[in-house]
């Protein structure tokens, strides 16, 4: 696409179409969602579709990819806060349908909590659609280099590059949490449909490695090459190194 805006409208409309189709079928629509700068325009368009075109989210159940650990919901840095600011506060999704990893779960409960997160996704029928961004390390969710293709939701240590990229918004590297809870590669790959968004030149190199490189745990996003219904939605900058 020429720009992120144009591309985001197309992605938002695919999601809206899926939600409406599930409403006709009288079924819930299970969405896996991402935070960060990449999906914000998609959320903006979904909010517009709700406010101006009557798109309802009453049948939507969401599972967010990740959350920093430790992190309180109230913090402006939390992904809980981000999702409410950008999407949930502006649509009619029932709050009981919103699932975001709990950044304050006690250390000794975190393993069981993560297993339960994956089980809950399975219990509602699995993800119908997973929206992704990509980090410069090749992470999807916070599955950093070294992540196993069969990994489930778990607590991880963030890569230095990822923490450095987050440092400006935290006003310094030392304020960026060292860990996070993330859905696993397998959790993501079980989704029936995956759309990965990347905008701008600074994603060009990792997009090239992800799309054209060998499948490897060194670039976890390459695992998506083995998924049968994944689309990478790119602007000219992010696509600029593809051959
Ligand atoms: C966020 C997430 C991350 C981001 C990635 C890109 O929930 O899971 O993988 O998608 O770090 O971030 P942005 O979009 O800010 O470039």
Automatic annotation (TrEMBL):
Residues of the Glucosamine/galactosamine-6-phosphate isomerase domain: 6-231
Origin: domain of life: Bacteria
Protein name: Glucosamine-6-phosphate deaminase
Range covered out of full length: 33 to 275 of 645
């Amino acid at each position: 696409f020429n720009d992120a805006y144009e591309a985001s409208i197309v992605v938002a409309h695919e999601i809206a179409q899926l939600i409406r189709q599930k409403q006709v079928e009288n079924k819930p629509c299970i969405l896996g969602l991402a935070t960060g700068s990449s999906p914000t325009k998609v959320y903006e368009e979904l909010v517009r579709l709700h406010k101006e075109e009557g798109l309802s989210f009453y049948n939507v159940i969401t599972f967010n990819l990740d959350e920093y650990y430790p992190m309180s919901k109230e913090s402006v840095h939390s992904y809980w806060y981000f999702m409410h600011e950008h999407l949930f506060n502006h649509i009619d999704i029932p709050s009981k349908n919103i699932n975001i990893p709990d950044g304050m779960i006690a250390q000794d409960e975190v393993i069981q909590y993560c297993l339960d997160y994956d089980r809950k996704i399975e219990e509602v029928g699995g993800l119908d659609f997973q929206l992704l961004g990509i980090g410069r390390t090749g992470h999807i969710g916070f599955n950093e280099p070294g992540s196993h293709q069969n990994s489930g939701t778990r607590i991880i240590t963030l890569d230095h590059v990822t923490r450095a990229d987050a440092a400006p918004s935290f006003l310094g590297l030392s304020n960026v949490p060292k860990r996070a809870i993330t859905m696993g590669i397998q959790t993501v790959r079980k989704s029936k449909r995956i759309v990965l968004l990347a905008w701008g030149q600074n994603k060009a190199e990792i997009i090239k490695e992800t799309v054209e490189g060998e499948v490897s745990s060194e670039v976890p996003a390459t695992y998506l090459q083995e998924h049968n219904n994944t689309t990478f939605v790119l602007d000219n900058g992010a696509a600029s190194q593809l051959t």
